[in-house]
Amino acid sequence: MTWIFGYGSLIWRPAFDYEMRRKAALRGWRRRFWQASPDHRGVPEAPGRVVTLVPETGAVCWGVAFRAPAARFDAIVAELDYRERNGYERTTVELEFEDGAREQALTYIAHAHNPSFAGPAALADLAAQIARAHGPSGSNREYLERLAAHLADIGVHDEEVHGLHGLLAGQ
Fold first, then answer.
1. pLDDT tens per residue across span 87-145
2. CATH number of residue 141's parent domain
3. Catalytic site positions
């Protein structure tokens, strides 16, 4: 296995070399802004919100799969383990590509038991938190804007991302 699935910032900033990039779907999971970010898009006293995956029957999360070079795969995963250290767990998933092909891949999921899991909130509350949060990796607003733009680039409409982006566009 040398595929890595990105559904958040990995879509636009994988930060590793790859041999192939493909649009891919992960069935049974939904992208949600349910993870607090006190380390990248916020600070401990004012965390931002970033995406994780939550299980949901019938849901499909579209993102991007990267095939990493086999010779560098272990080093890339070690770098991603560090990047995703705030509550995310490396998880093996089965992806489906647009042509119906399937591949095993690694992805990172911040489950409800991690200390930075923030859970659901009203869209307006999420938008307000995202609008004011800023951390070492930049503003939380920039994270949302980049995610919305890159999902649009691959032809994906995500209801929560689109709704939050619309709310912030007016602020």
1. 999 999 999 999 999 999 999 999 999 999 999 999 999 999 999 999 999 999 999 99
2. 3.10.490.10
3. 84
